[in-house]
Queue: 2 jobs
Job 1
Amino acid sequence: MPERITLPIADIAEESPDVRTLSFTHPLAAEPGQFVMISDLKGDEKPFSLSDCGGGSFSITLRRVGPFTRRLFDARRGDLFSIRGAYGSSFFVHSGRVLLVGGGCAVPPLFFLCRRLLAAGAEPTVVNGARSADALLFERRFQALPLHQLTALEDAPEPLTAVDAALRLLQNNRFDALYAAGPEMMLASLISNCGALDYQLLIERYMKCGIGICGSCTLDPLGIRACVEGPVLPRATVEQLTEFGVYRRNSSGARVPVNARRSCEQ
Amino acid sequence: MVTKIPSGECMDATLRTRFLELDLATPLVLPAGVLGTSFSSLLACARCGAGLVTTKSATLTERTGHPGPVVVETPAGLLNAVGISNPGIAEVLREVAVYRRHTAVPVAVSVFADSPADFAELARRVSDSPADLLELNLSCPNVSGEFGAPLAGSPDTVAAIVAAVKHAARLPLIAKLSPNVTDIAAVGRAAEQAGADALCAINTLGPGMVIDTELGLPVLSNGSGGLSGAAIRPVAVRAVHQLAQSVGIPIIGVGGVCNAVDAAEMLIAGARLVGVGTALWSGGIELFGDIGRNLLAYLNRRCYPDPAAVPRLEPSHA
Ligand SMILES: Cc1cc2nc3c(=O)[nH]c(=O)nc-3n(C[C@H](O)[C@H](O)[C@H](O)COP(=O)(O)OP(=O)(O)OC[C@H]3O[C@@H](n4cnc5c(N)ncnc54)[C@H](O)[C@@H]3O)c2cc1C
Ligand SMILES: Cc1cc2nc3c(=O)[nH]c(=O)nc-3n(C[C@H](O)[C@H](O)[C@H](O)COP(=O)(O)O)c2cc1C
Ligand code: FES
């Protein structure tokens, strides 16, 4: 059973004006796509995907979007955080030619996935999507790995969305599988255009317990939990979800339209 | 452990159970607040073998609940202080209506308020919905900062609320009781006399507290929270046994039930139905099916035709 552990921040990396990576020294047992619940025990606890894990340490990469991420963003080396996990499902690691499509601060968990894909002998191509060059995440980290990276910037002189970049690649190449993480509308648009390709998505829902007991993150109409059966869901499951790309539930459990509810995705 | 199988093994037991005019496929219940936030989550539990599902407790207006952490795992069970987050009764009843379109498995709507008048208003709203039963959460230990001590602490308060609701509700009424009292039987009797049609016992135990020794702070944002899971089962079993001797109305036994043996223990203690909550954390909702199958095997092995036929513990054991 995953344990709760209190750890000091071992290292902080500046990724963009509003994104930082916090590293912790601890041999966490985790797979790519899984998340941890992090708290300073000062009145909040939130889920974050692992952006890397291995060799006795792990990291999360967060965007400053509200009160809690602001506190994490401003934290210093040595500050203590209560962390539990790793929780949830993980990406199935294929060994063939695979396409990874990420947008915004959902790109970093794909970096952890790439490490595992490469270890399994896969040939990854990464579409790294961002609003602007400023907001682009992990470009250099991906460059350091033996894979093909394509950046897609929405406000470049020649604007390109991650979805358009991915669809172009899919037209001209054969891939065995697709992995995607990012804003839900981006994911919805991607999967409605990807033909018969097998895919897995990293999805976000409002999480409170993270362990499948409180019901905050359940997905209609299956009643599965994004924190246990997700956050990584295979195509066969996503295709049955009537709420995906349409609505989600907020902290009280009320339904809100997906596009009005953005988390790390703005 | 019973190791010897009696020779007169029977084959025709059923899990079907009558409860307040309802015919339930199994005596297993999803208790309030565990999953149960959406129609789909209630539906998944019903499809897995719960005979009755209960919604998360609803209030008149939307509540976001306590900030995190709202749960902490301990070696002896789960401590939670979710703080009755819910989208408000109107939204909850919309989910119940969708649920009803998909299944006939009965559903109880759990409600929470801080006054008899608000409880009565909630009861009216639920009575106008497709819900089958109304459950009064008189026992949440996690909102005392806002609402004062749990309502089920005093027989008089319980009687006042149940009476007010009885007047307003057209649905059978379940009073959910707290174990955190000196005399749960007195509270149960007060609820029965005021018109409750059934009791549900127990809500979480405590409250308790877990302190982080590095940060020197309580782990739960609420400071304290209610304990649930296997650790509280002996307390729940005794509470049900005491209530069963003190009231004539049926009891839903809840607290730490993890398998069919635990469920049988609840039936012997005097429960008509058995709730399975925190155990779903590690067992998943498939647990309803597993417990149902093994409970049926138990009934057959003991030649009890149905769950209601399981002999109750004699009164002398409290
Ligand atoms: C599985 C999962 C993985 C995530 N991984 C990352 C990550 O790697 N990096 C990152 O920056 N962010 C990630 N998030 C989002 C992150 O949890 C939110 O940004 C954070 O909770 C915001 O808290 P806040 O107090 O700063 O902002 P708030 O103002 O409280 O919220 C801003 C937005 O964040 C979302 N949010 C708030 N609380 C939660 C919650 N408990 N569960 C889910 N969403 C919430 C809501 O959409 C909200 O509108 C992830 C979310 C999930 C569910
Ligand atoms: C996370 C969580 C939330 C709960 N929320 C409610 C609630 O809203 N209303 C209620 O009456 N009981 C609530 N309970 C109590 C349960 O319904 C049940 O009475 C208690 O947990 C004991 O059963 P168990 O050990 O099988 O979980 C909650 C329990 C848990 C673990
Ligand atoms: S966050 Fe509680 S069930 Fe998923």
Job 2
Amino acid sequence: MNELLNGIPWGAIAPILVLQLILMITAFVSCIREENTNGPKWLWILIILIIQLIGPVLYFVVGRRND
Amino acid sequence: MTQWTVLYRKEMTEMMRNYKMIWIPIVFILLGVMQPVSSYYMPEILDTFGGLPDGTILEMPTPTGTEVLMNVLSNYGMLGVLILVLSAMGVVSAERQSGVAGMVMIRAVPYSSYILSKWAGLLTITLISLFIGYAAAWYYTGLLIETVAFERIFQSVVIYSIWLVFVVTLTLLFSTIMKGNGSVAFVSIFVVFAISTVTSILGKYMKWSPATMTEHTGQVLLSGELDSSFLLAFITTIAIIIFLLILSIQIFKHKELLE
Amino acid sequence: MALLKASDLVKRFGNANAVKGINFHIEEGRCVSLLGPNGAGKTTTLKMLSGLLEPTSGSIDFKGKKAKDLRPFIGYLPQYPAFYNWMSGKEFLVFAGQLAKLNRKEAEKRSEELLERVSLTNAKKRKIAGYSGGMKQRLGLAQALIHRPQLLILDEPVSALDPLGRREVLDMMREIKEETTILFSTHVLHDAEEISDDILIMHAGEIAISGSLESVMEAYRQPILQIEFESQAADWLKSIASYSFVSEVSIQGNKANIVLGDMVNGKQTLLKDIVDRKLPVRKFEISQTTLEDLFMKVVKA
Ligand SMILES: Nc1ncnc2c1ncn2[C@@H]1O[C@H](COP(=O)(O)OP(=O)(O)OP(=O)(O)O)[C@@H](O)[C@H]1O
Ligand SMILES: [Mg+2]
């Protein structure tokens, strides 16, 4: 296991993780500031925080009201 | 400042405020980068977690750089298109529904300025996302797999962008025609996939189809050469895009904007 | 000279005739109210004037010339104004100003002025999404004025407001009318009576009555006798219709409005009748028909 961790080229992986984090934070901030989301807000926050990549995208596409 | 500029800037501000300018490019980057990364690590991942009996020799040839990039584009063709259509569906319909389109048109704004500012906004987000995402994919492919010549990358992404521009222009048209966001997205996606399917089944007769842009993209990536039918497809696609825009403007002109 | 003149304006939606060939003109500097019940065609008319709706036929002249696109000269507040809710009030005004071809600086300056005027200065940086109905209406008024229009068209500017908000908007209109010609629609007759110089009464797509408020009131004013009883007196009220001097009786519960041809004679006779029959009278008053009576008459005809 340790061997595997050492084998990971963090230089290549780190930017991906950072981008995912930015995506998550953006969605989170947007969700917090949104007055009324489609569906319960707490559920969206859970979805954003738990499901990587898909969660935030799902929130942006269907969770936000467009106006 | 012309009215068009004011409207375009409003589109851009709106996309910043509703985070589209952030999340869509990020998703395109992630879609682009995950392909080379997973191709590179697939053998190792299988090796470690796959539970294969010791001594099995993995016959998993690492794909070539161009193959990886073609996979990236096919991801864009599915998920990318889906995301672009879903984020563009309300571009006119939502403003018509809320009535704010009428508030804009009260000022002597030409119908064409309104539609074209929307179109320019869609192009901006689409092209930025595609170029950044694809550049990231290219970089990672070079890092992990092999370097692909820049000219090929450049040509392929330009050709591919024509297809995505066609897709968002089509979405803009349906958003002008229909009011419900859901139905706009559904019809747009349905039409896009219908065109793709028909084009791939009846390839011989569909050399002019906008959907052939995806094939030409692959062709350029693989061989660096353009197929002779490209010019025809290019011209008809541009013509169709212009036609769709004119149609959108005309339809918008005849819609009642304030209820 | 008339600022705006509409000739034979017709609007058809499919088979339905929403506006049936109306003629009217608006004098410069006047405040004109367009009255009519729901569905009379007020909004349709205003939209045609503001260029949002193509008339089926007919023409609109502006300052004596056939008008093609009036939008640069007109400020319009729709019946249901909508905004970009993600913008702040000030941002929306600047945006509207720039669309009306003011440069950025002018738009900013004018926005500040108007925000002050519609008392939204304190809320100018807040998102419109958080504005109340009254605030939105005032913002709508401000956006209509941003380019100093020569004609301000307001579609039911006060209908959706509570009494306080109504008061505010009416006061603003009273100020605005000093410098701009106003055409506004309403079905609140009291508001029309209060601030308009001229009135147009529309019914079922046609203009039934038009003219200056005084002249219309003068021409249609009739002496009227209002009687109120402590209990029902319907029998007697029905019987008086047979008097020759009574031209119309309308009964609402314990009250009755009686239009008399001959006031002097009529009131004597009726009063005597009431006394003779010992009817429980509470109020016996001579007054004039109001705009509301006129309106009801037009609408019911
Ligand atoms: N887009 C449309 N399609 C079909 N009919 C319409 C349309 N717009 C208005 N009408 C019809 O035209 C008539 C006049 O409508 P309009 O909205 O002008 O009335 P209004 O006087 O403004 O009424 P309100 O006081 O309710 O606002 C109505 O009978 C209405 O049903
Ligand atoms: Mg109306």
